[in-house]
Alpha-xylosidase 1-like
Amino acid sequence: MFFSSLYSPTPLTSLLILILCIAGVNFANTTPVKIGQGYKLISIEKSPDGGLIGHLQVKEKNNIYGPDIPHLQLYVKHETDERLRIHITDAEKQRWEVPYNLLPRETPPSLKQTIGRSRKNLLPLATSEYSGNELIFSYTNDPFSFSVKRKSNGQTLFNSSSDDSDPYSNLVFKDQYLEVSTKLPKNSSLYGLGENTQPHGIKLYPNDPYTLYTTDVSALNLNIDLYGSHPMYMDLRNVNGEAYGHAVLLLNSNGMDVFYRGDSLTYKVIGGVFDFYFFSGPTPLAVVDQYTSFIGRPAPMPYWSFGFHQCRWGYHNLSVIEDVVENYKKAKIPLDVIWNDDDHMDGKKDFTLNPVNYPRPQLLSFLEKIHARGMKYIVIVDPGIGVNNSYGVYQRGIANDVFIKYEGKPYLAQVWPGAVNFPDFLNPKTVEWWGDEIRRFHELVPVDGLWIDMNEVSNFCSGLCTIPENRICPNGTGPGWICCLDCKNITNTKWDDPPYKINASGIQAPIGYKTIATSAVHYNGVREYDAHSIYGFSQSIATHKALQELEGKRPFILSRSTFVGSGHYAAHWTGDNKGTWDDLRYSISTMLNFGLFGVPMVGSDICGFYPAPTEELCNRWIEVGAFYPFSRDHANYYSPRQELYQWESVAESARNALGMRYKLLPYFYTLNYEAHTTGAPIARPLFFSFPNLHELYDVSTQFLVGSSVMVSPVLDEGKTEVKALIPPGTWYNIFDMTQAIVTIEPHYLTLDAPLNVVNVHLYQNTIIPMQRGGMISKEARMTPYTLIVTFPLGTKDLQAKGNLFLDDDELLEMKLGNGHSTYIDFYATASNRTVKLWSEVQEGKFALDKGWFIEKVIVLGTNGTDRAFEINVDGQPIEDTSKVQFITAEQKYIDNSEDGGDKGKSMMMDIHGLELPLGKNFVMSWKMGSSA
C-alpha cells in the first residue's frame, strides 16, 4: 500500500528527471565503455575441501569508477553434483556479502592463502579444467576468464572472456564497481532477473533495462526495479528439438544493472563480491529443485491460505468489515480470509487498535464469530515505528536500541504515522524485540497472519531529516505521502553518491531516494548501502520466527519486498498494479517469475489496486485470479468499492471460477507440498511440462497450475473468445468434461469464452483429486472426494497417475512421519479392454481418522463399461457393489483441425456411489465396452 509511488510522475519525480536530463544523464546507458585490461591469474591450487583457490592480480590500474582492487582471491567448488560455485573477492580485506546466518551456505576459505606463499601443490597456469559430475569449470590465466560447461554435451553455459569485438570488458573489480559478462548463444531463452513488470512477457527481452534494487515504485511502472531483488536467471536452450536448461545466481545484495543484449549479458554491480552459483538442470523443474535446495525450500502454507482473500485500504470501521463478510456470504461467493490495511490502527501506528473505529471488544466478538465459521483475519504491519514518547512499541524499541542509526542516533524518516525509525533486523536484539511486539499484539488481537508492507524500505522523505519545531507533521490534510520533515540531501559520502549510477527507479535516481540514506548504519557497522535490498528478507525471517514461537502454528506472512530465499519464509503479492487490461496480462508473467525465484505462493491484486476497474475487466480478472496460487482482491483507498459482489455479473464469474478453485483445493494443497519438498512452482509456464517445444518458450498469456491444469483466460476487452496455444495431447474442459481437444502438434485454437466463462483444461495421463467445494475451505475440506482420471485419446495402452497430500495444516512442519499426515499415489491403466484404478497409501491413519473417502470416479477417454465392478480395499474384496452406479456421455471434440489424429469414439464415465476410504489401499477394475 503506497500511493505516492504511483508514478504519473509526481512533481518531485518530474523535477528530478529534469535535473538529471540537464546534467546529461544517459538513461538508456547503451554506450558501453571498456574498463581496463582485466586480471591475470598468478597462481592456482587445490583447496583442502576439494575446490580450487586462485590468486588474481590486476593487469593495468585505472580510476574509472574508482581504483582497482589489486589482488583478488578466486575460489571454485563443485558443492553438489548439480551445483558449482565461483566466488571472487578482495584477497586482502573482508568485503560485504549476504549474511551467512540469513542465507546459510558454505563459507569460502579465509583470505591471503595464496599471496606470497610457496605451495607444493600449485597447478599449472595453462588453460585448464576442473570437472565435476555435471559441470566443468575452465579458466584462462591472462587475461583471466572462466567458463562453465555442461559435461554431457560440452555446451558452454557461461563464458566471461572478452574479445576486442565485444562491447564489454574483462573482469573489473573495484570497491564500488564490479563488472563481468558472459557470451550467450542466439538460441538462449532467458527468464528471471526480477522484480520488474515486463511488458514483453515472461521471456527476457534484449536491451530492456534490468536493474535490481528494492524500491517502492508501483508495479504499474514497466521495466523498473520494483520491490524485490532476485539476481538469478534461467537459460533454456533448444538444441535439435531437445531442451537443456540451467540457472545462474549472482548472490549479491548490492544494487546492480544487468544488460542483456541477446548474445551477451553483463553485470554492473556497485559493491559486494562475485558469488556465482550455477545449477545444471537440465529440465526447468530440475533447475528450481536445485535452486531452492540451495536458497531454502518454499515455506509450507496453511490450507486456508489457498482460499479466497478480500482486502481493501479504506475499510474505515469494523462495521464495514462485518458487512463485507456477510455480503460475500449472501452472494454465495467463497471467502476464507478478511484483511485490514492500516485502517484498524490508532494513528497508523503498528501493533495498535483504533479505539473508535475498531474497538477491541467488538473486534474480538467479530473474530470469535468468523473463527467459529473457519475464517481468518490478517492485518498489515509496516516497518516504520512512529516516533512518539507515549507509544509503547517505540519506547521499548528505544530502550532495546533496535533502530538503524545515522551518526549514532536512530535514523529519522517519514511514513504513514509521520516521523518514524526503522528497526534493524540484522541486530539479534531487534529480532527479539520484534517477536515480543508481535506477541503483545496477538494478545490484543488474535490475528491469523501478518502482512509486512513498505519494507524496501519505503520513506516519504530523502536524506537526513529532523522533526520540524514550528509545525505539525503530518498535519492531517492533503496526501499523507508528502514529506513534511525538515530534510537535507546527503551527497558527501561515497555511499550516498557512488561513482557508478545504477538505473534506480528507471531514472538513475540517487540510491537513497525515498528510502533509508545509504550511509546509515546497521548492526556491527554494516552500511545500508550494502544491506538495502535484504531489508524485507530480514524482516520476513524475524516475523516468521515470531509467529512460529507464538502458538507453534504454521505461519502465514505476506511480504512486498523479497530477496533470494524469501520464499522460505513468506508469500508475495506483486504490489500496486493498475486496473487495466495490460496489468491483467502483466500479472501472469510476474506470477510465473516468482515461481522461478522460489516464491510459489504469489498473486496480484485482483481487479487492480487502482483506479476503478470496469465491470468487464473485473469479470475477466477474477477468472484469472481464481487460479493464482495466492488469490486476493485488494483495492486502493481512493478507488470505488470493487468486492466481487458489487456487480452481479462479476459475482457470477466469481461463483464459477472460485467454485472450481474450491473443488481443486486438494490439488492446490498437494502442489503446496510439492513446492515445499522440491521447489516446483505452483503456477508454471507451459514449457515446464513441454520443455522441448520451443513454440511455448515465450507464452505469457496462459499458464499451468501444477503439471496438468492449463488456464487460458481472456485478457482483452470486448472479447468472447480466446486464441489459445494448445500443446500436443488430449485436453479435457474441466467445466464440461465431455469436451475434449486432441492435437498432435502445438497449434492455436480459438475457444469460446462468454463473459462468465474461463477456459481451464486437464491434461492427459493425470489423476486429479477434487472435492465438492464450498463457501469456505474448512467446510470444503470435509466433503467427499472425486478422482478425475484423464486418459489420452487415440492410443492403445492408457496410463494415468496423480497424488494427494493431506495433513494437519496447523503444524509447523509439512512432512510425512509425524502421525498427522497421509500421502497417496493414484495409478490407472487401461489395456486389453480392462480398466484398473488403484492407490498406494503412505501413513493412512490421519486420513482414516478424518473419515475422508472417495465417493466418485470420473474416467475420461475410454469406452465405458459392460461389466460389473471389482473393488478391493486393503486386500479384501468388496462383495456388495450394488450401490455403485455409473453414467456415460459421449465426448465431443471441439478442435476441427486436421491435426487431431485418429480420435475415435470416446466416453466420459461417471462412477458414483463409492465409499472408498482414502487411508486404505484400494484396487478397482472393470471391463470396457465391447467396441473398445
Summary: Residues 616 and 717 are 7 Å apart (CA to CA). The chain is about 20% helix and 30% strand.
